[in-house]
Write a structure and sequence with these properties.
Chain A is mainly α and 350 residues long. Chain A has one domain: ABC transporter involved in vitamin B12 uptake, BtuC. Helix content of chain A is 72%, strand content 1%. In chain A, strands 1-2 form a two-stranded antiparallel sheet. The longest helix of chain A is centred in the N-terminal third of the chain and has 30 residues. Chain B has 381 residues and is an all-alpha fold. Chain B has one domain: ABC transporter involved in vitamin B12 uptake, BtuC. Helices cover 71% and strands 0% of the residues of chain B. In chain B, α4 crosses α13, α5 runs antiparallel to α6 and α8 crosses α9. The relative contact order of chain B is 0.19.
């Protein structure tokens, strides 16, 4: 079976998942006597897209790393670093009222900083053959410690004061259209950025030479080496890309939220892990991963909807929906085929 | 092109776990100790550099760490109190890791054990006598209930992995979030104490506590410390001297070999997860009986289950090795309590240092390369 055929077949599973969610949603609404019209509002779609964007971005990065044969389990940690660096840079540039330009610059700084950290991490994984699971957990713990530490140094508390949210990209006139106007023409530019990355990641992975190298590095590194391509270099690029994407995801999360939260599991609160599940669910296909990311984003935002339509269920419990769905997803569709050489250090013969 | 047996999700691929385990076991005992010492020293060094960069005095900070951990009788009792919990959760992690199962969910199982301990003691108290005998019986009831529920909560991801192929690293992390959320909801609602200003359950009766011996600290008892050592001994004996332990460790090292010798790998995954969760649940009960006396929102009960991963790895997943590693973490945590009160250095630094320890422990090659370059090879310190 060709790689692409398999990917497409499995990409359908993520779509099936979204359909399943809609069915469950319809069931809940009929049982509790609430119209779907009230539950699935334009505002809900917009909030879901905003929440899905970081999950999708981090999933795309993790997908490339794992395709190349390296399991980057540190994504949650790199996302925390990305969110913190974005917030800190925004604050250093513009105090408590940074401008839109400051936000973009801060996200860029976050991507650069997380890429540098990931480069060090990649050296530990690839050159020094670190245990990928343990090292990834280490990154998570390092970020859970040092990001709130940094926040405490800057703001005197583990969370930042209110900064600025990213402004929507509004097309005058078209934005007034019902439903699509708000979703398409009055949307966060970062949602569009994420959508562009999904398309780009799909094209690069399945339609370019580099994409085939990435796949070969994970499936059959010996063959790639024989073909004269440096396996190690392909893996370095993929892992550093995954870290950059996690940094971007953290920045996007921060820009949508408007302030950094460093208490408990920080504002990232498991979304890096959701990203990993998203690409597993989408069976390593960028489009499938994006569909799964949308599903998780939608689940994440159900809380607000339930409150507005007056469903009497504790927000503490509704917040757990994504995690419970992840467990169900992994159990029902957990049998993905991981790259053959995943986790295996490669040493060239020459 | 797809291998027939390659059907597991992500990193839970059995071959992947085998390789990871093999790399950890490559090292000799002396080498492991040297790597652990190197990892801790490097993490502390980076921590001190960060303290310096943040504008504080790193030497003063290092001194504060020592004073906070060992500087007085009170500090020592606090260190041993934290160490009791760290060693127990560390042993819970070690059981699973030795069996080749990545139980990252010890934190959640610890939370489930804690709330179970509190509620079962509160519910059973009216039916038992008060006084020392009642206290003893209630400790037994609370601990057993916590062991059972902790074990069941860990069995769940074990079953999902064994029979559903669900990657246990991710399911256990998700179950940590679920435990925190559900217990938080229970404490704020159904289990909440009436008239309490804070979100918490009722207190367990005063007579349910470990008697103070040697140290007069109300939150630490050498009896609990001794009990903890007994648990370590039992786990070590089970793992090295029984056929169950042998099968468990064998399937952890090499699933195929264990399969040939007639071990049911799927059942082994479930049993080792359950065993691991039982110890984690017991730790939850010790936490509420010895220290807390009630349950709060679980976001505030500490990171014992997460730090336990670092402790177990430092000890190369050996239950006996967990004792010194847990003492070290007890000292760090105790020093953290001290620096929170005495200095302005944000205490989250300690969490960062713990993370660095985990990161360094994962890269034995780094220390081998360092030893080779500096001519420290062979015995290494």
């Amino acid at each position: 079976m060709s790689v692409r055929g398999m990917a497409e077949r499995h990409g359908a599973r993520a779509v099936a998942g979204v359909v399943a969610l809609l069915v469950v949603g319809a069931l809940i609404t009929t049982l509790t006597d609430i119209s779907v019209r009230n539950l699935i509002t334009v505002g809900y779609v917009n909030r879901s897209l905003e929440m899905a964007a970081p999950i999708v971005l981090v999933a795309l990065g993790g997908l490339y790393a794992e395709k190349s044969g390296v399991f980057n389990i540190g994504l949650e940690g790199f996302m925390i670093i990305g969110a913190f660096v974005t917030a800190a840079t925004m604050f250093l540039l513009g105090g408590t009222s940074p401008s839109q330009a400051h936000i973009w610059l801060a996200i860029l700084v976050a991507v650069v900083v997380t890429s540098l950290f990931t480069a060090v991490f990649a050296v530990l994984l690839i050159r020094y053959q670190a245990d990928q699971i343990v090292a990834g957990l280490g990154v998570w713990f390092v970020a859970l410690g040092f990001a709130p530490f940094g926040a405490a140094l800057i703001w005197g508390s583990r969370s930042s004061p209110g900064l600025t949210n990213i402004a929507n990209l509004t097309v005058p006139g078209l934005a007034e259209l019902p439903v699509v106007g708000s979703i398409l023409f009055d949307q966060s530019p970062l949602v569009w950025l994420a959508a562009a990355f999904v398309g780009g990641a799909w094209v690069v992975l399945y339609r370019t030479r580099f994409g085939y190298w990435v796949q070969a590095a994970g499936e059959n590194p010996e063959a790639l080496d024989t073909a004269g391509v440096n396996v190690t270099r392909v893996r370095y690029v993929s892992v550093i890309f995954s870290g950059a994407m996690a940094g971007l995801a953290g920045g996007v999360l921060m820009a949508h939220a408007g302030n950094f939260i460093g208490i408990g599991q920080t504002m990232v609160n498991g979304r890096g892990w959701l990203g990993i599940v998203a690409y597993l669910f989408g069976n390593y296909n960028p489009v499938g991963a994006a569909a799964a990311g949308l599903l998780f984003g939608g689940l994440d935002m159900l809380n607000v909807q339930f409150q507005t339509v007056g469903v009497n269920i504790s927000s503490r419990l509704v917040n757990l929906f994504p995690y419970v769905i992840v467990i169900a997803v992994l159990t029902l569709w957990g049998k993905t085929r991981s790259p053959a050489a995943l986790g295996e250090p490669y040493e060239s013969e020459d | 092109m797809s291998a027939p047996d390659a059907d597991s999700g992500g990193g839970s691929d059995p071959r992947f776990v085998e390789r990871a385990a093999a790399r950890m076991l490559d090292a000799s005992v002396l080498e492991r100790i040297a790597i652990a010492a190197g990892a801790v020293a490097s993490a502390l060094l980076i921590g001190l550099i960060v303290v310096g960069l943040a504008g504080y005095d790193p030497f003063g900070f290092a001194g504060d760490l020592l004073i906070g951990a060992f500087g007085s009788v009170g500090a020592l009792a606090r260190t041993l109190r934290f160490a009791t919990l760290f060693i127990l959760t560390g042993v819970a992690v070690a059981i699973a890791f030795r069996a080749g199962v990545f139980n990252i969910g010890v934190q959640g199982q610890f939370i489930v054990g804690g709330i179970t301990g509190v509620m079962s003691i509160i519910w059973a108290a009216p039916y038992l006598p008060t006084g020392p005998l009642g206290g003893f019986l209630l400790i037994v009831v609370g601990s057993l209930a916590a062991i059972v529920l902790g074990g069941l909560y860990a069995a769940l991801p074990g079953v999902l992995k064994a029979y559903g192929g669900a990657n246990e690293i991710i399911t256990t992390i998700m179950l940590n979030f679920v435990a925190t959320g559900v217990v938080g909801w229970l404490v704020a609602g159904a289990f909440g104490a009436e008239g309490a200003t804070a979100t918490r359950t009722e207190r367990i009766p005063d007579y349910v506590s470990f008697p103070s011996v040697v140290f007069s600290s109300p939150d630490f008892s050498m009896i609990a410390f001794a009990l903890m050592l007994a648990v370590v001994a039992v786990v070590a004996v089970v793992m090295t001297r029984t056929s169950f332990g042998y099968d468990m460790v064998t399937s952890g090292h090499q699933e195929s070999a264990a399969g040939y010798s007639g071990v049911d790998a799927k059942r082994m995954i479930v049993s080792s997860m359950t065993f691991s969760g039982m110890v984690a649940g017991l730790t939850g009960a010790v936490f509420v009986i010895m220290i807390q006396g009630y349950y709060t929102d679980p976001t505030g009960v500490g990171n014992y289950g997460f730090d336990a991963i670092a402790i177990s790895l430092l000890a190369a997943n050996n239950p006996v090795g967990v004792v010194p590693a847990g003492l070290l973490f007890g000292a760090l945590e105790s020093a953290g309590s001290y620096i929170t009160i005495r200095t302005d250095v944000p205490v989250q630094l300690i969490d960062g240092i713990v993370g660095l320890v985990v990161l360094f422990v994962s890269v034995p090659e780094l220390f081998r390369a360092f030893a080779k370059r500096t001519g420290l090879g062979g015995e290494e310190r």
